[in-house]
Design brief:
By secondary structure, the chain is an alpha/beta fold. It has helices at 5-19, 56-64, 89-95, 115-121, 132-136, 141-149, 179-189, 199-205, 255-264, 276-284; strands spanning 32-36, 42-47, 72-77, 100-105, 125-128, 153-161, 194-198, 224-228, 247-250, 269-272, 290-296, 320-329, 332-340.
Length: 345
Amino acid sequence: MQVSEAERAAMHRALALAETVRGRTSPNPAVGAVILDATAALAGEGATQAAGGPHAEVVALAGAGIRARGGTAVVTLEPCAHTGRTAPCADALVDAGVVRVVYAVDDINPVAAGGADKLIAAGVDVVAGLDHDQVAAGALRPWLHALQTGRPFVTWKIATTVDGRVAAADRTTRWISSEVSRADAHAFRAVVDAILVGSGTVLSDDPSMTVRDGADQLLEHQPLRVVLDRRHRVPQSARVLDNAASTLVLDTAVPRFALKALHDQGVRHVLLEGGPTLAGAFIEARCVDEVIAYIAPKLLGAGPSALGDAGITTLAEAVTLEIDSVTRVGPDVKIVARPVWAEEG
């Protein structure tokens, strides 16, 4: 693959740009784009806007203006070839006079794919696959997962003691993890499409399930709040039903039904924040794709564990986690891992 150092640097920048809009573009992918002029100098950059708004390439082209002619577009995702709520990005690049396009990940959406072929047919030099693995594991990951599986990407977030307790024997749950960990976990809410809990969590904790800044002010972007309430137990006075953000109450306790409903509404990344019972149901259904665990240096010895009944009866059935990262967050340890599901059949 023949790419220049300027193009490699531009791809790193495009990846960072995509991260700035993570959780704000669904059902469209979070994409970053950089335009280099004919001398390989930065001419424009951009990221995909909210659904119905311009795609990353169009934003970057607007910034570049006439400097795009004879230049190179570096994009995290193959430019689209279809007309939806916006015109094809492949056409916009051709019309702007771009002579080279470097992208990381092929568009696997059959509706939008084919942009590379359209560019090549127009005489544009196209290079595919630059930093593919890194980009596919970044802001594009939930969108790619949803296309491949037909359901949103699910991150299960937990805060536990070293002995795996999420509450004390008297059911108190507040401040198991440190303030630093809580802030870190809270910030993650801002990059997902939806936060999901069960009715038990609403009844016991009455959470607001919103995203706030350091001054405790609501951010402009608020994920969809989702409550699974098969037995219709959530009272109208619950904070999750206030006007701070949109809320969807689903009359089901089946994870796959709930995720299908959310996928149909354009949700591509779900943050699971429910209690042990709901977590167990999601694990049993193999509907957890990522685990973020904050482990506090505390021991309780009694109280509910992080995971309820997950249909696991023997050590041989234990779910193996592949560790992505282990970091210190204040006094706590943060583990990010991926379940490795055994092949069925």
